[in-house]
Amino acid sequence: MSELIKAKEPFRFCTRLHLSELTGLRATTLGQLLALIKEVPGSCIYHHTHRFLQQHQYLSPEPPNDFAYWVTDILGEDELGERLVSIDTIQYSTIRDLREKIASTIEDYLENSSLAKLKFARSGEEFHFIKSVSFILPTTYMAYDLKEFTGVLKKITIESIYFHIFEARLRLEKSTNDFAFWIENSLGDKKLANNISSFDPYTSTLEDLRNKIIQIVEKRVVN
């Protein structure tokens, strides 16, 4: 077993409470959807691309986002729905970039489909914009080395894992998830950090993510 390196700063585990809040904004056409996507708070874009993941944390792989569902099932625009589904969320490190990709995808489609501009959602099937409201809470757990880190990781809630893997990276505009960031910057282990940040978290359940990170870190500790 290699000697454990003490971190410059301990990793402080947080958790989150989540609420969904109606904005009162709704769209009945693709044009209206596009205009609102460009204007709504980033928390709306986050909600409609991560809602399923937040509510069904034991399921995988990544489900289609709400925008893709609505244009496909309500407006019947299957091709656009496929384009929206194919957007790889993991490639975007900010909500701003993700918003721009979604908007440009719809915009390009509308420019080449005059009929799509004429379609209206039926009453009761409008797209209602909802925003995600999170309250970040510190836990009593912290880790100074990799052994302590895996020890805590085995017992924290999946809400904590969700926050450090998904929300901290995208909503707080970090280049990687919290775990990889700490390992690289406080422990100086860039190789291990890259291993943890290299896999796609959207294709696994949160429990699978927990186990995968534990396995990677424990393997590193014994080598």
Please describe the topology of this protein.
Layout: E1 11-27, H1 30-39, H2 42-55, H3 66-74, H4 78-85, H5 95-111, E2 127-143, H6 146-153, H7 158-170, H8 178-185, H9 190-198, H10 206-222
Antiparallel strand pairs: 1-2
Helix pairs in contact: 1-5, 2-5, 3-4, 6-10, 8-9
Q: What can you tell me about this protein's structure?
A:
The chain is 51% helix and 15% strand. It is α+β, with helices and mostly antiparallel strands. A two-stranded antiparallel sheet has the order 1-2. The longest helix has 17 residues, at 95-111. The chain has helices at 30-39, 42-55, 66-74, 78-85, 95-111, 146-153, 158-170, 178-185, 190-198, 206-222, and strands at 11-27, 127-143. The protein contains ten helices and two strands; from the N terminus they run βαααααβααααα. Helix 1 (30-39) packs antiparallel against helix 5 (95-111), helix 3 runs antiparallel to helix 4 and helix 8 (178-185) packs antiparallel against helix 9 (190-198). The model has no long low-confidence stretch (mean pLDDT 89). The chain is elongated. It has two domains: 11-16 and 135-222, no CATH class; 19-131, no CATH class.
